[in-house]
Amino acid sequence: MIGRREPSLPPGPPTIPLLGNLNIFPTEYAHYKFTDWAKEYGDIYSLKIGPGTVVVITSMEAIRELMEKRSGSTVDCPPNYMADNITGGLNMVLARYGSKWQILWKTAHAILTPHAVTAHLPIQIAESTQVMYDLLKAPELFYTHIRHYSNLVMMSLLYGKRSPRYETHEALLFFESQHLWELALEPGAHPPVDVLPFLRYVPRRWAPWKALCDKTREAQRKLYFGLLDECMKRVQRGKENGCYMEEVIKHQDEFGLDRELSGYLGGVMIEGVSDTTSSFLQSLILLLTAFPNVQRKAHKEMDRVVGDQRVPTLDDVPHLPYIQAIIKEACISTTGCQEVNSYRGYVIPEGSTIFVNTYICDDPKIFNPD
């Protein structure tokens, strides 16, 4: 029966016919509910979403085994109607495994070499110094300072274009498109089109998620291809400034790229760093405020290793283990299972979605803020 949990699957919440667990799937802050379920059903459990299967893992042991040791069979992304409808399947983070995915990742690896990263380190140091000054002068505006910093660094590195103010056109356009993108991808916020494919044929006037896809696609393409075209014109005029996307443009044929792939490659790299970096740093500030004892320990370690007469460098990182532990805390990632896996006597079916709930800081056996 559709919606019923097969006996070979890991345990999980009770199901109902047809829907499975769709009726109780969280529509926001999913990591909280996933963590609660882990306490009840264990660090590996399953959810039935109609005929589909979701397997949630919430332990370092299971993550290491399934995501690292068996990464060859869990590398794929689950189907995502919203993402594919917006990007045409060209967002390399959410694209299904295939030739275009391979081209995008191969190109990203080719240009993001250790040598290239080192060459651009002065930009990162300069902008880090600027954001520290901004935080010191106006700490109440930390949210805006961090967003500006993360976007500014990536715009400079990728396209050689600095946004001197948060209100710069490209910066505002990015955060507008990113907000729409997050709305489109939020788990549970829209009907489960991937599980119930007939929803794709619902007339547009009764399907607000389709209008959201169109609006998001328009905003993304306006930014991504506007920046790409500007960069291409600069290359054609011989006015290169050494940014990453100039290398992509000059070696498009070698990498197997066309204009569409190049535009989305640059756009996803802006998205992949600008938003994740700002979200992380904003959360870090809030967490350090909420847990002053952690802040004091981190401050003490920084004073011991770096002192108060200079800023930290990459050479200091190995000597800052407590701060490294703080930085490595995370939330949820999603992947897909390309082939049948067996783990602890359970079966993870081919085509199932795997949620890696790395919100394990709630587990006192792993992380204790005291």
UniProtKB/TrEMBL annotation:
Q: Name one GO molecular function term.
A: heme binding
Query: Where can this protein be found?
Result: Membrane
> Which keywords appear in this protein's UniProt record, sorted alphabetically?
Glycoprotein, Heme, Iron, Membrane, Metal-binding, Monooxygenase, Oxidoreductase, Transmembrane, Transmembrane helix
Organism expressing this protein natively: Lentinula edodes (Shiitake mushroom)
Q: Which InterPro entries match?
A: Cyt_P450, Cyt_P450_E_grp-I, Cyt_P450_sf, Cytochrome_P450_fung
Q: What is this protein called?
A: Cytochrome partial
Tell me which SUPFAM superfamilies the record gives.
Answer: Cytochrome P450 (SSF48264)
Q: What is its main location?
A: membrane
